[in-house]
Write a structure and sequence with these properties.
Pfam families: Spectrin. InterPro entries: Spectrin/alpha-actinin (IPR018159), Spectrin_repeat (IPR002017). The protein is mainly α. It has six helices and no strands. Helix 1 runs parallel beside helix 3. It is rod-shaped, with a radius of gyration of 40 Å.
Length: 254
Amino acid sequence: EKAVNLKKDLAEMQEWMTQAEEEYLEKDFEYKSPEELENAVEEMKRAKEDVLQKEVRVKILKDNIKMLAAKVPSSGQDLATELNVVLENYQLLCNRIRGKCHTLEEVWSCWIELLQYLDLETAWLNNLEERVQMTENLPDKLDAVNDALESLESVLRHPADNRTQIRELGQTLIDGGILDDIISEKLEAFNARYEELSHLAVSRQIALEQQLQTMRETDHMLQVLQENLVELDRQMTSYLTDRVDAFQMPQEAQ
């Protein structure tokens, strides 16, 4: 009777493993939304815990069959053969579910990381847009134009590492057919805004550089003119002090 019960327990265990494999490993999952992906991750975590909890039952079966084999070798040998099959299948199921759980957790981590990089770069784009707007309607002063140019250039020196991460993470998920529609839409919107703002910012940078150069040249010309006027004033004052007749003065002084 004990052998019959153990044989029944082995059969039930094998049936449970078959059902677990069908439910957790053979279903075709489509992750078209973050909610679906998150739910799948949580389901696989529960599946891993469920499978690992069966380890106690498997050990009890193994111990009972060993005890029976010691008492009744003939019955125990047949059960030991069946036990080995169950143990092998159980270990395989554990490994496969662990693997799938790990894969889904990595995918979820990849998605979260992508969102974090997008948030960082979106904040940078917002800053860039603000700096570009600050270059409009500047006062016609050298310092104001120079400060606006330096401010814009400091933002444009932003490294490209984050955008590289966004591209690679997004492509990895899309290639796996995971959240591909959502990610493609997000990347398209981000890239379009990045290209538009970058082009506008570089155009404003060039315009400010040209404006600054013109203002510096004008400022230099005014400085030279001012120096000439000061010198001329000095000469005129000298002529007047010395009561020099106008017709005796150099042509430029007349």
